[in-house]
Structure formats: structure tokens, C-alpha cells
């Protein structure tokens, strides 16, 4: 990643211009995207509470940022696991450092913009987390993107990611059906917050977190010095203020923006950014419509109201729609929106990857966003464990990817 190319969205398109300039903006698509976004915002403003249109705007900004920086998690893990390139992982550490700095006072005070309670994403550590994060790590390498990467690649028109998203929903729904078994039927050590479970407090937990992020930056630099992996090539970009609208953005810039937007999400809805709970909701509603007794699943106990109301009342759903629309606007503004080719191998990988990610996310109490990004930002130990185990899943997936015609970076390769 002079940017992290999540799922290598439009990889050939980035290389089409030898002078590294962007294609001509697809103005009609930009206009359509703005109209759809405005209609959805107005609809939410008149039918839902005030937070929903605000969350749509946050989602738009998240999607716009993700696409313009090609900021991802799948390729970051893959490049470090395969050849030792840690550029994107260092951007993750910057993002997390900014996030914990912003989350600490918000969680310590515990109040949102609208007077509600602000709570972190704190989840249990046990067999469910280990199995789920490992499956997710494998799945994102086969499916071509993580949770956020799938959404923004769909917004960018990458055809195979529509398949990944569909089976992501299926896997998440099956995971919700099995949730009670994994959470209550397997060993667990309970939830651990570095801030509230250890006596460190938020300031002490912040210091420990910053030291860890610094160590990871040093560690990745040391690995790079030893392995001397290729650097990642620049994405096509324009100069001046137009770069804000048309990209590409530096990884570090995107890291800071994503952390700030996550903190604003926490202040707006009372919890940080997440993705996959909405996918479980969408699939469960379909299953409910088919006559399956979804309300009896342990996952929905205490929250059956969500099954009875519109999906537009769900804050994570609105964020997801915003991410897709934001990525669509960013890709069209850069002249990069176009559907890509499908074949048997990449469709098969997308099906398997989507199922593994959806199922794994439910078992692991979140994905690369809800568990890894927001979990660590919330000082939850499960977020750190999620990242380590997902990296282990990535290592295994490197041996499986070639079976589906998917590339694995080599030391001699250059990165686009």
C-alpha cells in the first residue's frame, strides 16, 4: 500500500495510466450517487431518529476514505505474512494509536453527543474467539477482502465481491444460529478490558497500548530490514485540492481520518464502528421470512425487536450503506468504477471466503472492524488476540489461494 490495496480493487485500472494520473471522472455516476445518498438521508431524517442520517454521512466518509487510500486489512496481513512488507501494518498502528487516544476520554466520561451512554466493544476471550478469528483470517484471504474491504470493493464495482458479500451474509446468519453453542458451550475466560479489568485505568491502558503500537512499528521495520521486501507502488493521483476529492490519499492520512470517524461514531450512537452485526440481521430477517424460528436463536435473545423493525432503524446497517455509497462516489470521481470479470475459480473462492468470514465474525464477536479496530480502540484484550489469530489464519490461506488462481506476493514482486 503506498496505500493498502484491499482485495486489489481495480488493480489493473490503477496501472492503466503510465503517468500515474487518474482517469476522467465518471460525472453521471457521481451525480447518481449523490442523488441516492441525498434521498436516503432525507428518508432517514423523516422516518428515524436524528442519529441515522448522521451515521449515513459518517458511513459515506468512511467509504470515501477507504477507497481513496485503498486502505485495507486483508492485503496488509497478506503482504506481511508472505514477504514481510509491514507498510500497511504500520498504518494500522498509527490508526489504532489515534483511536485509543480519542476513545479513552470518551469511554472514561461515558456520554455521547445525544446524552446516551458510550460503551466500548469488549468481548469474551475463549474458544469461540480463537476459532472465529482464525476462520475469518482464512476467509478474508480467499474472499478477496475483509468486512470493510468487501463493502468498499462492492461500491467500487468489483463484481466478485458481490458474491463474497452475499455469502458473507449467509455465513453470518448460520453463525448467529450456532452462536449459543460456541459462546455458552465452549470454554471462555470472560471479557478483559485493559482499562477496567486490570486496575490500570484509561490513562494506564492508553500508555500500554501506545507502547505496544510502537513495538509493532519497530518489529515490522526490523522484519523489513532483514527480508528487504519490495515497496508498494503509488496509486494514480491528481495534484492540489483535487486530490481530496479524487485521490489517492496517503495511508497515514487515511489512518488518522478513519480513527477520527470511528470516535465520532462512538459519540453519535454510543458504540464504535462495526460491520457484521448488520449482515447477521439481514440474513436473519430473510430466514424469518422463510418461516425459520430465528427469534429462538441465542444470538437474538434480548434483541428480538431488531427482527421486527425495519433495517433502517439499525445503526450498523445505515453505516454499511454509507460505506458502499461513499466508495461508489470515490471510484466514480476517480473514473475507476467498472464491473470486473467473473470466473469459476474466483467465484468459488468468494463463496468459501464469504462463508468463513461471516461464520467467523459471529464466533469472534466481530470482524477486522468491530473486533480488531474498534475492539483494540476500546482497550479490549480480545481485539489483540483477534489480530494475532487472524494473522495465523492468513498464513494458512497463503497455501490455499493458488488453488483458486489467487496470487501470493513473492519477494521479487512489486506491489500495485
From TrEMBL:
Swiss-Prot/TrEMBL keywords: Cell inner membrane, Cell membrane, Membrane, Transmembrane, Transmembrane helix, Transport
InterPro entries xref list: Sulf_transp_TsuA/YedE
Residue ranges of the region described as Disordered: 1-20
Coiled-coil regions, chain positions: none
Bilayer topology: Multi-pass membrane protein
Subcellular location(s) of the protein: Cell inner membrane
Similarity field: Belongs to the TsuA/YedE (TC 9.B.102) family.
Record-given protein name: YeeE/YedE family protein
UniProt source species: Salibacterium salarium
Amino acid at each position: 500500500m503506498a496505500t493498502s490495496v484491499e482485495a486489489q480493487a481495480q488493480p489493473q485500472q490503477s496501472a492503466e495510466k503510465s503517468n500515474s494520473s487518474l482517469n476522467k471522472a465518471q460525472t453521471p455516476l457521481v451525480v447518481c450517487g449523490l442523488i441516492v445518498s441525498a434521498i436516503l438521508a432525507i428518508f432517514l431524517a423523516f422516518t428515524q431518529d436524528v442519529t441515522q442520517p448522521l451515521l449515513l454521512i459518517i458511513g459515506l466518509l468512511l467509504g470515501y476514505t477507504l477507497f481513496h487510500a485503498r486502505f485495507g486489512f486483508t492485503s496488509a496481513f497478506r503482504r506481511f505474512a508472505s514477504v514481510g512488507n509491514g507498510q500497511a501494518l504500520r498504518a494500522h498502528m498509527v490508526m489504532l494509536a489515534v483511536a485509543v487516544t480519542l476513545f479513552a476520554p470518551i469511554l472514561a466520561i461515558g456520554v455521547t453527543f445525544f446524552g446516551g451512554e458510550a460503551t466500548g466493544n469488549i468481548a469474551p476471550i475463549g474458544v469461540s474467539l480463537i476459532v472465529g478469528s482464525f476462520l475469518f483470517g482464512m476467509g478474508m484471504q480467499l474472499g478477496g477482502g475483509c468486512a470493510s474491504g468487501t463493502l468498499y470493493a462492492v461500491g467500487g464495482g468489483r463484481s466478485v465481491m458481490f458474491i463474497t458479500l452475499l455469502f458473507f451474509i449467509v455465513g453470518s446468519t448460520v453463525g448467529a444460529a450456532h452462536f449459543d453453542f460456541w459462546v455458552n458451550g465452549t470454554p471462555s475466560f470472560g471479557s478483559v478490558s485493559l482499562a477496567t479489568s486490570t486496575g490500570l485505568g484509561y490513562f494506564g491502558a492508553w500508555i500500554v497500548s501506545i507502547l505496544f503500537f510502537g513495538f509493532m512499528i519497530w518489529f515490522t521495520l526490523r522484519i523489513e530490514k532483514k527480508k528487504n521486501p519490495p515497496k508498494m507502488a503509488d496509486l494514480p493521483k491528481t495534484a492540489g485540492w483535487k486530490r481530496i476529492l479524487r485521490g489517492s490519499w496517503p495511508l497515514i492520512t487515511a489512518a488518522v481520518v478513519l480513527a477520527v470517524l470511528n470516535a465520532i461514531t462512538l459519540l453519535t450512537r454510543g458504540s464504535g464502528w462495526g460491520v457484521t452485526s448488520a449482515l447477521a440481521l439481514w440474513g436473519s430477517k430473510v430466514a424469518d421470512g422463510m418461516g425459520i424460528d430465528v427469534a429462538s436463536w441465542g444470538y437474538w435473545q434480548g434483541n428480538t425487536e431488531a427482527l421486527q423493525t425495519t433495517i433502517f432503524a439499525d445503526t450498523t446497517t445505515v453505516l454499511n450503506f454509507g460505506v458502499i455509497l461513499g466508495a461508489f462516489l470515490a471510484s466514480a470521481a476517480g473514473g475507476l468504477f467498472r464491473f470486473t470479470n467473473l470466473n469459476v475459480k474466483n467465484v468459488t473462492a468468494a463463496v468459501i471466503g464469504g462463508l468463513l468470514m461471516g461464520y467467523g465474525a459471529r464466533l469472534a464477536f466481530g470482524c477486522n472492524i468491530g473486533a480488531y479496530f474498534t475492539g483494540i480502540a476500546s482497550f479490549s484484550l480480545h481485539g489483540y488476540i483477534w489480530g494475532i489469530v487472524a494473522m495465523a489464519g492468513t498464513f494458512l490461506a497463503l497455501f490455499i489461494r493458488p488453488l483458486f488462481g489467487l496470487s501470493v506476493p513473492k519477494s521479487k514482486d512489486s506491489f500495485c
